Amino acid sequence: MAIEKDSVVSFSFILRDAKTNEILEDNSNLPVSFLLGRGHILESLEEELAKLNIGEESDILITKDKAWQEYDENLIQELPKEQFAGIELREGLELFGENEDGSNVRVIVKEIKDSSVVIDYNHPYAGKDLLFTVLVSDVRAATEDELASGAVSQPGGCGCGHHGQEGCKGDGSCGQHEHHHHNDGCCGHEHNHGGCCGH
User: Fold this and answer.
1) Closest by alpha carbon to 35, among 143, 114, 183?
2) Exposure winner among 59, 122, 123, 177, fewest CB in 10 A?
3) Would you say 35 and 11 are in contact if contact means Cβ atoms under 8 Å apart?
4) How many whole angstroms separate alpha carbon 89 and alpha carbon 81?
5) Three-class secondary structure of residue 45 per DSSP
6) Dihedral angle sign, alpha carbons of residues 162, 100, 193, 155
7) Per-residue pLDDT tens listing for the chain (199 residues)
8) Parallel, antiparallel, or unpaired: how do β-strands 178-179 and 130-141 relate?
9) What CATH number matches the domain at 7-69+126-160, 3.40.50.880, 3.10.50.40, 3.30.565.10, 3.40.1710.10?
10) Which phi and psi (to 5°) does residue 43 adopt?
11) Do the bridges between strand 76-80 and strand 23-35 make them parallel or antiparallel, or are there none, so unpaired?
12) What's the rounded Cα separation, in Å, for the pair 187 and 164?
């Protein structure tokens, strides 16, 4: 039986590169929760999770055309190093910031030069087919507060009211990252990544 919209779904997962079988994320010991139908996770992943029952495990293949498309070289930009004042830069560092329209964006430091920094607006999983091994651990009705806020009121909840909330790495695992505010406006909303559980 399909899970109804606005239910709170809790699930654990292991995420692999479908081509190489490399483990990209292992969230098997810490279930994450989200409101179904609110866009907190990849739509294609959400659709498949909605078909499962509590206690059911499944392998879900999300091809790159339904995830983060192909890697786009045009989403690499070089910025003056002074824009990163106060940040301890290193290659591979994830930074969060805002576009001029107020939307959130996540970038990755690709290269550090003498006077500039090369950043990559591509999602880390751009160009990859993704294989999620998921286990649905719980499904429940959302509370009135959760429905109003769009956020799950418990540890591990996904859905911060908008995508790009700090602490969510874009695939469900959470961690503390540095923040960088920039106003270049070169990354549109369609490239806004950094929410929870793959979105």
Assistant:
1) 143
2) 59
3) no
4) 10
5) helix
6) negative
7) 578 888 899 999 999 999 999 999 999 898 899 988 888 888 899 999 999 999 999 999 999 988 888 888 999 999 999 988 888 999 989 888 776 777 677 889 999 999 999 999 888 888 999 999 999 999 999 888 888 887 787 655 554 333 333 333 333 333 333 333 333 322 122 333 333 344 4
8) unpaired
9) 3.10.50.40
10) -60, -40
11) unpaired
12) 13
Length of the chain: 199
Q: Which runs of E-coded beta strand occur in 41-184?
A: 57-62, 76-80, 94-98, 104-112, 116-120, 130-141, 178-179
**How many CB atoms are closer than 10 A to CB 115?**
8
Domain ranges of the chain: 7-69+126-160
Question: What does the block give as tokens for 133?
Answer: 């091994």
Q: CA 173, CA 21: separation in Å to the nearest integer?
A: 19
